[in-house]
From TrEMBL:
Organism: Planomonospora sphaerica
Ranges where the record places region Disordered: 1-21
Function: RNaseP catalyzes the removal of the 5'-leader sequence from pre-tRNA to produce the mature 5'-terminus. It can also cleave other RNA substrates such as 4.5S RNA. The protein component plays an auxiliary but essential role in vivo by binding to the 5'-leader sequence and broadening the substrate specificity of the ribozyme.
GO-annotated biological processes: tRNA 5'-leader removal
Single GO MF descriptor: ribonuclease P activity
Family matches, as Gene3D superfamilies: 3.30.230.10
Reactions catalysed according to its record: Endonucleolytic cleavage of RNA, removing 5'-extranucleotides from tRNA precursor
This protein's name: Ribonuclease P protein component
E.C. number: 3.1.26.5
Record GO cellular component, one term: ribonuclease P complex
Length: 119
C-alpha cells in the first residue's frame, strides 16, 4: 500500500485491534474500486519507535511476517500495521504472535459483522 487515501480508509473506516507492540487496522476497498483485487498491506513506524535504522529494521521484520499471512486476508482488503515503541526491542516470535492475535480478532469481527448483515 502506498497511497495516503488507502491508509486513511483503513484506519478511519476499518476495524482496529491493538496489542502492546503493534496496532492493526483492517478496512475494505469501496465495492466499485477494485474490490476483487488482492489485499494491500501498509506499515507505519513512527520516530517514537527509534532512529531510522531501528524503524527500517522493524518494517522489514513486519513485512517478512506478513508475507506468510497474506493468504488469510480477504480480497479487496486494506491492512495497516502500526508499530508501537516496544516493537523495536521485541523478538520476532513475540511480533509474530501479536500480529496473529490482532489479525484473528479483526477477521473474526469482520466475519461476524458480514454474517449479521446477510442474516
Amino acid at each position: 500500500m502506498r497511497r495516503g487515501e488507502e491508509f486513511n480508509s483503513a484506519v478511519r473506516k476499518g476495524g482496529r485491534s491493538g496489542r502492546p507492540t503493534l496496532v492493526a487496522h483492517l478496512g475494505m476497498r469501496a465495492p466499485d474500486l477494485r474490490a476483487g483485487e488482492p489485499p494491500l498491506v501498509g506499515f507505519v513506524v513512527s520516530r517514537a519507535v527509534g532512529g531510522a535504522v531501528v524503524r527500517n529494521r522493524v518494517k522489514r521484520r513486519l513485512r517478512h511476517l506478513m508475507r506468510d499471512r497474506l493468504d488469510r486476508l480477504p480480497r479487496g482488503s486494506l491492512l495497516v500495521v502500526r508499530a508501537n515503541p516496544p516493537a523495536a526491542s521485541a523478538r520476532s516470535e513475540r511480533l509474530a504472535a501479536e500480529l496473529d492475535v490482532a489479525l484473528d480478532r479483526l477477521l473474526r469481527r469482520r466475519e461476524s459483522s458480514t454474517t449479521r448483515m446477510e442474516g
